[in-house]
Design a protein that fits this description.
By secondary structure, the chain is of the alpha+beta class. It has 2 domains: about 80 residues; about 120 residues, Immunoglobulin-like. Helix content is about 30%, strand content about 35%. The chain contains 3 helices and 12 strands; from the N terminus they run H-H-H-E-E-E-E-E-E-E-E-E-E-E-E. Strands 1, 3, 6, 9, 10, 11 and 12 form a 7-stranded antiparallel beta sheet that branches. Strands 2, 4, 5, 7 and 8 form a 5-stranded antiparallel beta sheet that branches. A hairpin with a 2-residue loop joins strand 10 and strand 11. The radius of gyration is 31 Å and the shape is elongated.
């Protein structure tokens, strides 16, 4: 008597490998699925009804699916290994920045020795760019007119004087930037200056201490000065 294997067994197998499978399947689990698939396929071929054999297109489709599962697992393992190898390289790169000044997102401004550095980034050119500087109490102390600026990062320097020409004490200040083109507002991104003090490699990746700011990711550095 000739017996046949029900196609629902194959469907259930692929459902377990695809729709209901958990992410991060190990290589051993993938190999086990491949073995189960091949066992099931061989059993189907051995026990198929000679008068109603398995469709070649169906068998090819099943084999293509198991190959896809195996390929994705190998690709995931390769990407994980690549990611792991990149972290030490990022740490080495960040270490080389210690002692260098950088621009990172922020609006802080540190005045020391009669000078302070700041910056901003424009997504499009502007014919008017103005910086307003505030003290720790939030009072406006200086306006800087930087004129027309091109797209990209703009660096600027403050001499520590207020709007009356009086020298202000060293310390922490803040700033805002306003820019426009032909009367239409352009939204700049403020960048604050800081020295890279240290580099840390942890679970969150490589981070740096920049000035008074901690946990600054390497990707946040807009420019090294």
């Amino acid at each position: 008597m000739i017996t046949t294997t029900q196609p629902t067994d194959t469907a259930a197998l692929f459902a377990s490998m695809n729709g209901t499978a958990k992410t991060g399947t190990s290589a051993n689990a993938t190999n086990a699925m491949q073995d189960r698939f091949m066992t099931l396929l061989v059993t189907q071929l051995k026990n198929q009804d000679p008068l109603n054999p398995m469709d070649n297109a169906q068998m090819t489709s099943q084999m293509a699916q198991i190959s896809t599962v195996s390929g994705l697992d190998k690709l995931n393992a390769t990407l994980q290994a690549l990611s792991a190898s990149m972290t030490p390289n990022q740490a080495v790169q960040a270490t080389g920045m210690i002692g260098h000044g950088v621009l990172i997102p922020g609006s802080g401004l540190q005045l020391a020795n009669g000078t302070a550095l700041g910056g901003f980034e424009l997504s499009q050119q502007a014919d008017v760019a103005q910086v307003a500087i505030y003290d720790q109490a939030g009072a406006l102390v200086r306006n800087l007119d930087l004129g027309a600026q091109q797209t990209g990062i703009v660096k600027w320097q403050w001499d520590g004087m207020d709007n009356t020409g009086a020298a202000l004490p060293a310390g922490n200040y803040s700033f805002t930037v306003n820019a426009s083109l032909a009367g239409n507002s352009v939204a700049p991104s403020s960048l604050q200056f800081g020295m890279v003090n240290s580099v840390t490699q942890g679970a969150a990746g490589v981070t740096m201490s920049v000035g008074a700011a901690d946990n600054i990711a390497l990707s946040q550095v807009k420019q090294i000065l």
